[in-house]
Amino acid sequence: MKSGLLLLILFLPGLSLAAESFHLGIFAYRPVEVIEKRWQYLESYLEQQVPNSDFVLHILELDELEQGVQQNRFDFVFTNPLHFIQMRSKYPLSGALGTLVRLENEHPVSALGGVIFTLKDNQKIKRLADIEGETIASPGNGFLGGYQAQLYELHQAGIDISQLDIVFTGSPHDKVVQYLRAGKASVGFVRTSTLEQMAAEGQLSMDELKIINQQSLSDYPFVISTRLFPEWPFIALPKVSESTARRVASAILALEPSHPVSQQIGISGFTVPADYLPVELSMRELRLPPFDVEPDVSLMQIWQQHNGLIIALVFTSVMILLLLLVIARQNYSLRLSEQKVTQYLKEIEKRHQFLRSTFSAIPDLVWIKDPKGVYLDCNSRYESFMGKARDEILGQTDHDHIPSQQASEIHIHDQEVLRHRLPSIQEEVYHFKSDGHEEVLEIIKTPILDATNAIIGMLGIGRDITSRKKAEEELRLSREVFENTLEGIMITDRNAIIVDVNPAFNKITGYQREDVIGQNPSILNSGRQSPDFYLDMWRQLNEIGFWKGEVWNRNKNGEIYAEQLSISSLKDDKGNIEFFVGIFSDITHSKEQQEQLSMMAHYDVLTTLPNRALFADRFNQAIMHSKRNQTLLAICFIDLDNFKPVNDNFGHETGDQLLVEVANRLLDSVRGEDTVSRLGGDEFALLLNDINSEKECMRTLDRILHKLEMPFVINDHSHYISASIGTTLYPRDDEDVDTLLRHADQAMYQAKLAGKHRYNLFDSHHDKVVTQKQLIQDQVKKALYADELTLFYQPKINMGTGEVVGVEALLRWQHPEKGLIPPLSFLPQISNTELEVEVGEWVINQAIRQLHEWSQQGIEMEISVNIASHHLQQPSFVSKLGYALDEYPDLNPRQLQLEVLESSVLADLKKIRETIDACQNQIGVSVALDDFGTGYSSLTHLRSFSADTVKIDKSFIQDMLDDPNDYVIVDGVIGLAESFSREVIAEGVESRQHGLMLLAMGCHLAQGFGIARPMPATEFPVWLKRYRPEQSWLDYAAKTRSLADNKSTLLNLTFKQWHARFVTRLNASPETMLDWPIMDTSRCHCGVWIEAGHKEQLFKASTLSELSLAHDAYHANANEIFTLYQDNEFDRARQALDNLNQAYERMLSAIASCQAGQMNPDKIVASYSRGFL
Predict the structure, then answer these.
(1) DSSP character for 496?
(2) 3-state helix, strand, coil in the chain (%, to 5)
(3) Are residues 588 and 641 in the same domain?
(4) pTM score above 0.70
(5) Which of 126, 146, 414, 876 has the most CB atoms lying inside 10 A of its own CB?
(6) CB of 226 within 8 A of CB of 107?
(7) Do the domain assignments include residue 295?
(8) 424, 442: one domain
């Protein structure tokens, strides 16, 4: 027995701790695993909230879920609203415990709907009407969001839903999208949020879908095509106890959006159960199950089955009806009385509510107290003041709400009001406890009397007068400013009648207030402003409501004063002008100071003439006048001659009087519109307007010179001065005033240099040239110091031996931005300047240094440098050259050659000859006469200067193959050089033919592009190693040549040159700039050669005759081709080239006969070997 009791005691606690199992069925509208993953957290949450419970989730399809409900396997069900309505019609379900609130994009959502969609590339379906005849995919007819909501929307749009072609995919809703993608349907029905969830899971992109009948709901986060219905209900089945149902309901309703379970599931929680009647009504309208079947029962069947019951019910109903009639008759009178009482009470309540609303709507603080100070009523504004609700205030006194001392003071004042039976008005600052702000209130307290005149209470009203008090303070402050400001103030009405003025107005104008009230401001008019001035003032006031400026007025004493005035218009609410307010200050003293400062700033104190600043201002004004009238402006710079002796000998006071008299004479010499200005000292400037020609300007300047040369009598002593004037004309000289004055100053300086007492006109072109020249000089000087100058070297050779005999140093400018600049671009600009000397010395030093460096490398070479005439004439030239060579004692001075331009020796023949002699005899350098043949006295130079070498200018060398005249000059220079025992070198050798021709003429030394271009010093050793002489030159010089050989060679070279040039020009474009060779048979090389041959009789007559015939035939063909070409027969001209080539061969044969033939022995002169003549 005892052991049994012990076992029972041990067993009972175990029974009490056993958990009760609850099964929750959830409809899987999405894939089961998705729903289970989300809602598994609810299972453990409910187990925590419901003690001793074990919740089991069942995620099921719709039919499985309904089967479980039918078999009573579930305690709770969580499904869609349609399914809920369907189950409620079949099974005894209780109401919902709560309605789901989803959380989407931070938005709580407690309603759902349906989405109608198609694929984006479906162009046939755009609106609801297009759906008819299309195949529709739906998850099933048990879905509110996937079936019912869409059908209801189509039904409301007038579409016959019985004719729709709908295929059911089954759940989840994801299958609907798959049907559309597979082409099994054109339109899809799914519940809201399905598409967004699939997109978030990466199963689709919203861009591939088109939403039909899309609704614009600002607070709804999903795309939707239908109206909204309540979200899913959470349902407890009848078998669940009331206490458990309450606990579960409390648990799910306690889920806030921030709760971890809500966040894990992805919902906002649950709300109180929604009204699912709209779902049921739409089901009934659509006749969806279970509202799709009408009861099929007839009246006869009802009578046959229940006739006895029906008779009893009818009898009972009749008896009840009779009883009711008796009762109704007795109560009729009672109802009439009751209606009257009810109507009366309603009227009282209505009036009470009206008074209550009116009382609460009063913007002032309103309260009512009984005689003892107990609150009987108050309005909402008083509630705000107290910071408490009306119910918390009524029935209490001030001692219950505010400090005791303050409450006592209020109570004493209230009792005084009741005792005197009169209203009391006072101002107090009230602090509102509701939000802490303060207001100035006007407190009115008045006793409340009944019909017997007995006091039954007190009414208090507090009116906000904060704004009024602020306005009064601002008005007081404005009045203080108006009365005490130092600026005069005048106020007029819209008709410009004075309505008020301030004391400062009285002080400035002298008028008292009573003098001007009702007057027009014109009583102050000084007459200095024109009527147009006032018209413009009023126009501006009417248009923009404001005017500001300076006005000259007259005070009461008749004195004129200046004032700075600003006028503003004041408008009413409709924008109409009511008043004008003028504020002004007396600026007369300031204006006087301004005028003095302006005088000092713009006029010369001594002569009262405009100074340079005012002169510039008037020039800018004159420019516009000149442009309008197309006239000239003359800017003249005047400097007095012989003024300094007057100033020094007679004192500054006499000098100043003389300057004043000069200013007066200048003013008398020009017109009123012209300007005479003193620039300072004894310098004046003139601005002559409306000049039509230079002559007109010159006449004025002649008049000025004449007036200024007249004696100036000062202190009974006559003083004589004159003036030098420089002038420039605008817009010929189109510059700013400072530049024009500078140009006029330059012209004046030239007038001084020319002898004074005259004028000179500025040459703008010459100035630009000088300016450009100075700019280049500055740049070259900078380049010299920045080590940007460099020397290039051009080899000189002996064509007969192939030996490199020297180089010429050529100056180049290695510009950091422009690159390599040739000497002709900058050397002419520094000619005859000290900079030219500096550059020349730099070139000599660089060349000597280079000689030394090459000598160290085993290269012994002569370097020739070009020396400018100005440099050569420097007294220190010889000494500095000697010092430069002394720096390198191992160098042979003969390795340095000075090249002197033939034209430069014209400067100072004697001095240059002495310098050259010193360089040769004292220092030992060699000298070359450069560009020989271009000067004016070549024979004199050869005789006078002991130059070692003569250089033939390249201009003759380059054209000697084409022009017989150049050939004759070259031949003559070679002959002269030999006659004076000078070496001769040709520059400008550009081809093999040039070299052969020079060799035939007896010149062996040459330089030019045909040999080598100028090169940097670092490249010369490399070139020297690679240099190979021209073989044809070596061959020609190696053989002893007869006079016939040389002359025949010259003829052969010049004829081939003529032929090649003719063919080149013939085949070139007609627009080419190439020239034709000499077409005149008597002036071409061959013609001159043949003519000379006949005169000299050096060749046999038969040989010359054959040559002459061949030459004539050749030129006849050439002239025929030339004529065709000139007539634009280009093709025919070129086709005739074959005949010319045949004549060319004949000509070459005739020349060869000359080379092979013998000369007349008796005509050979041994010393004559050059020229045709």
Answers:
(1) S
(2) 50, 20, 30
(3) no
(4) no
(5) 146
(6) no
(7) no
(8) yes
